[in-house]
UniProtKB/TrEMBL annotation:
Name under which the protein is recorded: Broad specificity phosphatase PhoE
Native organism: Paraburkholderia bryophila
Entry coiled-coil feature ranges: none
Record lineage: Bacteria, Pseudomonadati, Pseudomonadota, Betaproteobacteria, Burkholderiales
Length: 200
């Protein structure tokens, strides 16, 4: 049994465009600009009709999934990184108020000066989710079947999945750029997980 997994980052939010960390409130919705981005991108995303869909608990991810026509199961493992006391804060303000802490966080995957989650912890969370997904799909599929899965989540989660699948050092995370509505494709076979160019 093989798995073809499409990980999609949610549409842009007002906080992202203002250079803010996301607010801690998972009910913060998309604004009209984010919804318009999804409508423009929908025809470009090749999401299989038979895909099993999962989504982060955040409203921006759930609204992205809904606008893409997906009925998705909420999965807490797909939640955004926990930014601790930096939730809702402007990056520009932190550069002035806490430059050493911010520098450490952007360079050291084990640093979590905000009291939240480090990137290394996020990688571990996503590794656990990928293995749990493999177990779940193994029980739900026939031996020679390819199971299509799509997950709507957050840019840091996509970065963590790439790092995990490639077996790369978590320290490479600042070199991976993920734009809103980006797609990465991962496949699971007897070789384990591999990263494929996403087809659009």
């Amino acid at each position: 049994m093989d798995i073809r997994l499409l990980l999609i980052s949610h549409a842009s939010t007002a906080a992202m465009r203002a250079g803010r960390f996301p607010v801690a409130d998972p009910l913060a919705p998309l604004d009209p600009r984010g919804l318009a981005e999804i409508r423009a991108a929908r025809s470009l995303l090749s999401i299989p009709d038979d895909a099993t869909a999962f989504v982060s608990p955040a409203a921006c991810a759930r609204e992205t999934a809904s606008a893409l026509g997906l009925t998705a199961t909420v999965d807490a493992h797909l939640a955004d990184m926990n930014y601790g006391n930096w939730h809702g804060r402007r990056l520009a303000d932190l550069m002035t108020e806490a430059p050493h802490e911010l520098a450490a966080w952007t360079r050291d995957p084990d640093a979590a000066p905000h009291g939240g989650e480090s990137f290394s912890q996020l990688v571990k969370r996503i590794e656990e989710w990928l293995e749990a997904l493999n177990e779940r799909m193994s029980h739900a599929s026939q031996a020679n079947q390819t199971h299509n899965v799509v997950a709507i989540t957050h840019a840091p989660v996509l970065r963590a999945a790439i790092v995990s699948v490639l077996g790369a050092a978590p320290a490479v995370f600042p070199r991976i750029e993920i734009a809103p509505l980006s797609v990465i494709e991962l496949r699971r076979s007897r070789r384990g997980w591999t990263w494929w160019p996403a087809s659009r």
